[in-house]
Amino acid sequence: MTTRGLVAVLLVLATLTGCARSADPVEHQSAKAAEHVRPHPGQAPRPAYRRWGLSSPLAPAPTPAPTSPPPARRPHLPPVVDHVPTRDKVVFLTYDDGAERDPRFVDMVRELRLPVTMFLTDSVAGPAYAHFARLRSVGANLQNHTLDHPALRGLPYAGQRAEICGQQDKLRSRFGLRPRLFRPPYGTYDTTTLRAAAGCGITAVVLWRVSMGPTDLRYTHGSPRLRPGDIIAVDPDETTGPSLRERTTTLLRRIQEQGLTVGRLEDYL
């Protein structure tokens, strides 16, 4: 081979090598990123509680001991509760309306086995009931929060009954269930509300002693500390603040710091 021919061959080889090194830089970067995501062979994946920002796993909730239901204010009317009398070191997580529909929240409930209770309003949650069907499939409980989210106190019996029974019918039609628990919008109610709720098959009207805001806990009354049996409302629709998952993670940390865990509200009411 002549010197000129040898130089030509070397130039071709150099070009091919350069192409191989520079081909598809996006694919190369994706492969590098995947190396950080995939555990190395023999390396165990991170436990679920760490994936969701907790420093330790949630303690399992105890099997609830039989308890007497809270007394009703009047015979044949459902009791109004914001706290469950129990010695079990549990609190209860509740969510209202159904406006936030982050699919990753479904993963969070499934992986942490969170026994959450969702009080659904049809006009808010109705367009995305499939999301709540997925939540229900991973252990969430679905309960009643009216058809259209009006402030019920002061409304006539027929109007209150239509709001409560109407949502009972919607949830039965969509999910095959008829809720026992009801949360009045804004936490406002009167004796007419209790009469209407009883007529719709409701066995307890559920308020809250504690709420979880964008960054921390707020208390409606009593000591500013979580107590066994507290019902916690995670504020909905904080569109400019932390996501539902972030607020739930902050709340779970507070629960763990105070030596408590999460129980299933429906097991206690």
Describe the structure.
With 269 residues, the chain is an alpha/beta fold. The chain has a single domain (48-55, 74-267), classed as TIM Barrel, CATH 3.20.20.370. It has helices at residues 3-22, 25-37, 48-51, 103-112, 122-125, 129-137, 157-175, 191-199, 244-257; strands spanning 80-81, 90-97, 117-120, 141-144, 181-182, 204-206, 210-212, 217-219, 231-234, 261-262. Strands 2, 3, 4, 7, 8, 9 and 10 form a seven-stranded mixed beta sheet that branches. The chain has a three-stranded parallel beta sheet with strand order 1-6-5, with no helix packed on it. Strand 7 (210-212) and strand 8 (217-219) form a beta hairpin. The chain is globular, with a radius of gyration of 27 Å. The protein starts with a helix and ends in a 7-residue tail after the last strand. Residues 5-38 have low confidence and may be disordered.
